[in-house]
Amino acid sequence: MYNLRRFILKHHFVILFILLEVISILLLARSQNFHRNSLVSSTNDVVGTVYKWSSDVGGYFRLGKTNEQLAEENAMLRRQLSVVADTASSTYFHKGDTVYEYIPARVVNNSINQANNYIIINKGKADGIERDMGVVSTEGIVGVVTDVSRHYASVLSLLHSKSFVGVRFKNSQQLASLRWNTNNYRFGMVEDIPTHVELHRGDTVLTSSYSFIFPEDMMVGTVEEPLAATTDALNKSKIRFATDFATLRHVYVIKNLYKPELDSLQAKFEKP
Amino acid sequence: MNRNVLLIIRFVALVLFQVLVVNHIRLGGYVHPYIYVIFILLLPINIPNWQLLLLGFGLGLSIDLFTGTPGLHAGATTLMAFCRPAILRLVSGHQKLENVVEPNLGQQGAIWFLRYTLCMVLVHHFALFFLESFSLHLILQVLLRIAISVPVSVFLIMIILYLFQREKKQESR
């Protein structure tokens, strides 16, 4: 016992160092999971509050651009409303048809230059935000909620090595999947495109209807550069995100009102 | 002012400056300067080793809280704190540091400080970027990030030290 104590006292520097490094690496390894349940999560209210102060100050400098974006979105919504008004007299529409609810939120912290980027927004459990809800901006999709505290939520940005979204090409209706591995916040990578599908620069990429997270036909981006496959049978394509992640400020969190129903249906398939 | 109070103020100020200002610097995808390591650079020379390690770990963990990367910065700063005594011996050589309380740009000179900062930042950035990629298949990209970020970090740290420690010298006069 005495020898052990002497050994620890003598080598306490090395022992403490190894202990702290092991803790760090364990924390890091746990955070590699898609859902972060770690004690050290940036989704706590102290961190959220500090970022909110900073964002409140920075927000004043971008008011002009924000106004412009909101005005454009208003115009778009008015155009859509006029279309709905034309068809509303038919029997297809009734009040219970609302499937998606949009919860407006503000980005209080956002990174774009890490290998794995997260966004923090100023709405949380108290505002009805839950995990796995989609997040969109006025320009296109942004990410998926991964962690919620009382007043804040963290969002797994499309700019994350684990991000994965089902997409569809507007022209060909071809389904594919979107990932991010380009290290550039403007571009994403669409994978699993069959070789017979012809792609051109500027083709529109939308969300597919198979996702419960995003509504169908939300804007994702445009084809920047189709990449022909060299070895396997599936092509890839570099796309330019519609969302400008560098200036992201106002977003909407999408709540699918039928999600519990869809989930319970899918759970039945998964365990027969 | 009480030294501990000064250390706490320095800790909070550097963490906030890093996460609210420096992390938003965007010069291409490869430049990631980290200046919060100044805190470890300026710790007293004769600080007990266990305090040095715990402060390094705590500093990294605070940055991790803000960036949502638990363990990443903590691992890098702990390694940096662990290497500090050896780097101090290496950089000083025959120069004696026994009567020095805290490393100071004015006292030790710019060349000494540049070598000291460069070694410490190299250790930190190597650990950080390799932990971040968590695998070695992107080794060239990681090395490129390190090669670009280290000079930028060292440059920023030297500027900040020059601004603050020059003032301190004037006070003592």
Structure commentary:
The complex is a heterodimer of chains A (272) and B (173). Chain A is an alpha+beta fold and 272 residues long. Chain A has a single domain (41-83, 96-272), classed as Rod shape-determining protein MreC, domain 1 (Thrombin, subunit H), CATH 2.40.10.340. Chain A has helices spanning 2-10, 12-31, 45-59, 63-87, 259-270; strands at residues 100-110, 116-121, 134-137, 141-148, 153-160, 165-169, 175-179, 187-194, 204-207, 219-227, 234-241, 250-256. Chain A has a six-stranded antiparallel beta barrel. Chain A has a six-stranded antiparallel beta barrel with strand order 6-7-8-11-10-9. The longest helix of chain A is centred in the first third of the chain and has 25 residues, at 63-87. Chain B has one domain (3-23, 33-167). At the A-B interface, helix 2, helix 3 and strand 2 of A face helix 1, helix 3, helix 4 and helix 6 of B.
Task: Name a few traits of the molecule.
heterodimer, A: 272 residues, alpha+beta, Thrombin, subunit H, six-stranded antiparallel β-barrel, six-stranded antiparallel barrel, 30% helix, globular, B: 173 residues, mainly alpha, 7 helices, 0% strand
